[in-house]
Amino acid sequence: MMILPSEEEMTDQDKQKIEEDAFMSRRGFLGLLGKCTVCAGALVTATSSANRVLSGDKGATFQQSEAQHIESLKNPPKIPDYDWTKHQWAFGVDTDRCIGCLRCMEACKAENTVQEDSSHHRTWVERYVYLEGSDKALVDSQADPKNIQNVRSETKFRFDNRYKDVKVDKAYFVPKLCNQCENPSCVQVCPTGATFKAPDGVVLIDATYCIGCQYCVQACPYGARSFNEQRGTAEKCNWCYHRITKGLNPACVDACPTGTRVFGDRNDKDSPINMFIKNHRVQVLKPEMGNAPNVYYLGIDREVS
Question: Among residues 175, 193, 222, which one ends one of the domains?
Answer without folding.
Answer: 175
